[in-house]
Design a protein that fits this description.
Number of strands: 8
Structural class: alpha+beta
Radius of gyration: 23 Å
Number of domains: 2
Largest sheet: 2 strands, antiparallel
Order of helices and strands: EEEEHEEHHHEEH
Helix content: 40-55%
Shape: elongated
Strand order of the largest sheet: 1-2
CATH class of the largest domain: Mainly Alpha
Strand content: 15-25%
């Protein structure tokens, strides 16, 4: 079942969704009327799974700000071990370190982003911004479809 309204095809997104014993088709119009919107997240997969995602990039940014993996982990509410495992995974998957650790001593240890880590943050933020613009455009298109249907169906 497709419904064409002023150049907008409003087709069922989820055919046969069951509510109790009743099956129904939900159109883009009905989704928008219920306050629904297009949503999503973007991440970059590597050979071992997730390479970069919003949480990993925020961890890299915290390492840059704090100069320490343990301080970055505390800021994000995660254990040092988990933060280190995420960083180690990113370093291994890229084959070059994004973060390097300084050994402890009199002045303490610490960690810093490499040039690769800085470029990874920039590249991911650009990708994430482009993805969010796409989602915003698709949400607008969904709402325009609803508006055109409402105007057309009005007596």
């Amino acid at each position: 079942m497709k419904k064409r309204v002023q150049g907008c095809v409003c087709k069922p997104l989820f055919p046969a969704i069951y509510y109790g014993a009743m099956a129904t088709d939900i159109t883009m119009n009905e989704l928008a009327y219920t306050g629904c919107e297009v949503r999503g997240h973007v991440w970059i997969e590597g050979p071992e799974g997730t390479l970069l995602g919003i949480g990993r990039v925020e961890l890299l940014e915290q390492v840059r700000a704090c100069g320490s993996i343990s301080a970055a982990a505390r800021e994000m509410g995660m254990s040092y071990r988990h933060a280190w495992e995420l960083i180690d995974s990113m370093n291994r998957q890229l084959g070059e370190p994004l973060v390097i650790k300084a050994t402890g001593g009199r002045g303490g240890g610490g960690a810093r982003l490499t040039a690769v880590g800085e470029r990874a943050i920039i590249a991911f933020r650009e990708l994430d911004n482009a993805f969010n613009r796409f989602v915003e455009l698709r949400t607008r298109a969904l709402l325009e479809c609803v508006d055109s249907t409402t105007k057309r169906e009005a007596p």
